[in-house]
Amino acid sequence: MDELPIASGDDVVRVRQRVRVVAADSGLSLVDQTKLVTAASELARNALVYGGGGTARIEAVTSAAGRAGVRVGFSDDGPGIADLDLALTDGWTTGSGLGLGLSGARRLVDEFELTSKPGRGTSVVVIKWSR
Amino acid sequence: MERVPILKLGRTLFVSIQIDLQDDSVMRLQEDLAAELAATGATGVIIDITAVEIVDSFIGRMLTMIGSISRLFDAETVLVGMRPAVAITLTELGLSLRGVRTALNAEKGLELLGGSA
Amino acid sequence: MEIDGSQGRMAAYMRDHQDKVVGRWCELVAAGVRGRSSAVEIRAELEDLYALVLRVMAGADDQAVGELRAVLAELSGSRARNGFTPREVALGVFSLKDAVYELVADSADLVPEYLSFSRLIDDLGLHTFETYAAAREQIIADQAAAMLELSTPVVRLWDGIIAVPLVGTLDSARTQLVTEKLLETLVATGADHAVLDITGVPTVDTEVAQHLLKTVNAARLLGAECIVCGIRPQVAQTIVSLGIEFGDIATKATLADALRHALTHAGLKVTGADRA
Fold it and tell me: C155-265 in CATH: which number?
């Protein structure tokens, strides 16, 4: 598993590059790689901008049925999200939601787990499986 | 900080995005573009993203803002060269690039600009 | 799978009579597969399995269980791909019980241990069957994917105008494939018009409409305009009653109408040829 710090814009780029490599090695199609890396970019940026910096954990995983996949986790010790439902609202075109792009990122991956409490930071774990 | 070069061809400005842009280079690009538009009176801007592998909301916002800046100077923006994988991801993401037209490549982008001049 | 420490005695007994038991096991298995595997192959496979089973029963190391399950999964996966029936595959495991029973039939004191052993074999047999079923499902999935790939042609109607005839249900997987092919063709041909023919799509509900919309939006990002054609009367009714809006996407009844629209949009005109 790779653990990368997220403390600057360059770190976000590094996370993208690492996720790309692991996704390609896991046999994800180009489109699936792009979706995962885009989601990772979104989440890493969130950790940086709203979480005051954090960590990304990237690892190749295998499902019970033997399928290869990539799990990426993001954690920060920022202020946390008070209203999770609102955060997951589609904020793209309507301007509602918290503009965190979480709902968009969720659509790009197969599994999405968000844990956050005000004052306790935020953790998002996503998984994309190969087809 | 890397500066993105802006080329001028006739009444059109060309911007080719080759690298991962960060906050400061994005600001710089937008400033440079505004300056060029004001100085040259260009009527069209072509942003080539052939080399761009990922368009997230940050880049999306940058592109939309460039479209808005251009419009302030009465210029039209065309985004060209989007990769298929990026297009599919953007539609899944639901990211709408408001105020920016799109074309397959720079040549078609020029045709698009020429037609509406 | 529980590792019963008391199976140590049974394991030792089975090790002492290894040749006899494995020999009998091979006979039973060979009878089941009816010549599709050679005696030598069967012997080699079963000897390895036997050794692993004994290790598991002796409870000596933790890895034995994992290894045994992995070897069985590998075997049943390969059997599945080679067309063996589920019964043949499972019988391979269950027949060990018969072979061992013949060995201990006269020893009453080994009965409780035999029962534990029997449970272990049952569990292994089920595991074998599960992995066999999973392997078969994978084959079906692979075939479905291949069929999907074949049934998504993109044709060139004219310079700059391509058409995608959609046949069958438009689910998320198919839409993705169609979109990918469409976009690749746009890049390859430099087309700026794409006609999506949905004559062959049986139902168009809100979900299908959303999929179509995504495809259209993706094509637009590559500078192409889309026209949806092949809207049958019943489909038209469904679309309207569901309140689906196609917005600014042109929709036509037939492919011919769509072609005419695209040609006009492209600034082209079809005129009669002068016949001399």
Answer: 3.30.750.24
pLDDT of residue A91: 55
Q: Which CATH number does the domain C7-147 belong to among 1.10.490, 1.20.1250, 2.40.128, 3.30.70?
A: 1.10.490
User: Which residue of chain B comes nearest to A14, CA vs CA?
Assistant: B20
Q: ipTM for the complex?
A: 0.90
CB contact under 8 A, C192 and B102: no
**Where exactly are the structural domains of chain B?**
6-111
Task: Give C176-227 pLDDT, tens digit per residue.
Answer: 889 999 999 999 999 999 999 999 888 888 889 989 999 999 999 999 999 9
What parts of chain C have a pLDDT lower than 70? 1-6, 60, 149-150, 276
Categorize the per-residue pLDDT at A119 as very low, low, confident or very high, splitting at 50, 70 and 90: confident
Superfamily of domain B6-111 in the CATH hierarchy:
STAS domain (3.30.750.24)
Beta-sheet strand order (sheet of C155-158): C155-158, C161-167, C193-200, C225-229, C250-252
Binary contact (C222, B104; C-beta < 8 A): yes
Q: pTM of this prediction?
A: 0.73
Q: Give the domain CATH number at A74.
A: 3.30.565.10
Candidates B56, B24, B4, B66; CA nearest to A8 is B24
Compute the distance between CA of residue B109 and CA of residue C79 in angstroms, rounded to an integer. 57
Nearest to C28 by CA among C39, C17, C14: C39
* Contacts C184 to B, Cβ<8 Å: 84
CA nearest to A9 within chain B: B22
Show residues of chain A in contact with B26, CB under 8 Å.
Answer: none
